[in-house]
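Hello Y.,

Per our agreement to keep a running log of every chain we model this quarter, I'm adding this entry. I've kept the format consistent with earlier entries: sequence first, then predicted structure.
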Amino acid sequence: MREITCEQVKDIKDQYRLIDVRTPEEYVGELGHIPGTELKTLGPELMEFLKNLNLEEKVVFVCRSGARSGQTTLLSEELGFTQTYNMIGGMLRWNQLGYEIHKGDSK
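Predicted structure for the entry above:
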């Protein structure tokens, strides 16, 4: 599985599509989300999104700790995506590093 650190994501986030795979409640909750991320909850919503995405798209998947985004990264690789990455440590690590977050509306 391809992985990327929070530090790397902070530096390249404008060059990649950031997809948060948590629930809407988590997205706007205590840990917030990275500004500019798109919420595509793991499950049918995410599968529909992946079916319509270019296999060459540069994507970083994000979740709370890195487990669900890791699962999504493996799935994307199985589907033939070539530039998808799991953000190691998820929003827990992002917050620990003190990086910018947003806690507003998920839309």
